[in-house]
Design goal:
Low-confidence stretches: 1-10
Helix content: 25-40%
Number of helices: 4
Number of strands: 5
Mean pLDDT: 80
Strand order of the largest sheet: 1-2-3-4-5
Structural class: alpha/beta
Order of helices and strands: EEEHEHEHH
Distance between the termini: 33 Å
Length: about 120
């Protein structure tokens, strides 16, 4: 699936497989509706989501808010969401500058960005 400024790649899950959602390019608020739609589809489609943010070139707080909300929704349904690769520098910068490393709705060991917080 192509979006203006980026690519979202989805692989439909088979039983006991991981659904991969890859976000690339511009993942700022201008694309938040499309990104949220992909997370909502994943929540209804799979029990195990791997999120690839390694090629995000531009983002803002909206992406991190969507990711945190998705994490909470997955956890509420006893589903798993994880990062498949380390996030791009653009994502890490917004995560740190936005205060996400200081406040997390999950225990630090459950945070999707725990490696970022441990190594940052």
């Amino acid at each position: 699936m192509f979006l203006r400024g980026g690519v979202m790649e989805e692989r439909m899950p088979e039983e006991n497989t991981i659904y991969t959602l890859r976000l690339t390019g511009d993942c700022s608020v201008q694309h938040a509706t499309d990104i949220l739609k992909r997370f909502s589809q994943a929540l209804e489609t799979t029990d195990n989501l791997a999120l690839d943010l390694s090629e995000v070139e531009n983002t803002d707080l909206s992406l991190l808010q969507i990711i945190c909300a998705a994490h909470q929704s997955f956890a509420a349904r006893a589903k798993k969401i994880s990062l498949s690769r380390p996030p791009a520098d653009a994502v890490i910068a917004v995560w740190r500058d936005g205060g996400f490393g200081r406040v997390c709705m999950f225990a630090q060991e459950e945070c999707l960005f725990k490696e970022v917080s441990l190594n940052g």
